Amino acid sequence: MRAYSIYTITDDSGLVIYVGCTSGSLKERLWAHKNEAKKFALGIKVYNKEKAMSIIENDFNVVINPVESILVYDWKYVQRREEWWIRYFESQGMPIKNKLRICEY
Question: Which residues have CB under 8 Å from 66's CB, separation 6+?
Fold first, then answer.
């Protein structure tokens, strides 16, 4: 069994800009998102430029928050939960910047 966290990244006004999942620490995952945005700011091609631009536009003042913790054997279940949360926050009018609905370890 493996533990996963589904999380949101919110901007400085509290809007959810990204939903993700990880089996690592949330602190490390936020660092990775910010690092990707820094690369984009330097002109390096990144996978999700919309998310990177949102982080840059907020002067890197974004927060990571857990929304669900899951202990499972099958990470595809976690992907389905991540997709559910993406749809939920989109239905609430949040400016979600997810490119693909895929969980990152």
Answer: 5, 6, 7, 26
Evaluate whether residue 102 is within a structural domain. no
With beta carbons less than 8 A apart as the criterion, state whether 56 and 102 touch: no
Residue 96 lies in a domain: no
Q: Tens-digit pLDDT profile for the chain (105 aa)?
A: 999 999 999 998 999 999 999 999 999 999 999 999 999 999 999 999 999 999 999 899 999 999 999 999 988 999 999 999 999 999 999 999 986 655 554
Angle subtended by helix axes 49-57 and 26-41, to nearest 10 = 90
Q: What is the CATH number of the domain that holds 86?
A: 3.40.1440.10
**Domain count along the chain:** 1
Query: pTM of this prediction?
Result: 0.90
Residue type, 97: K
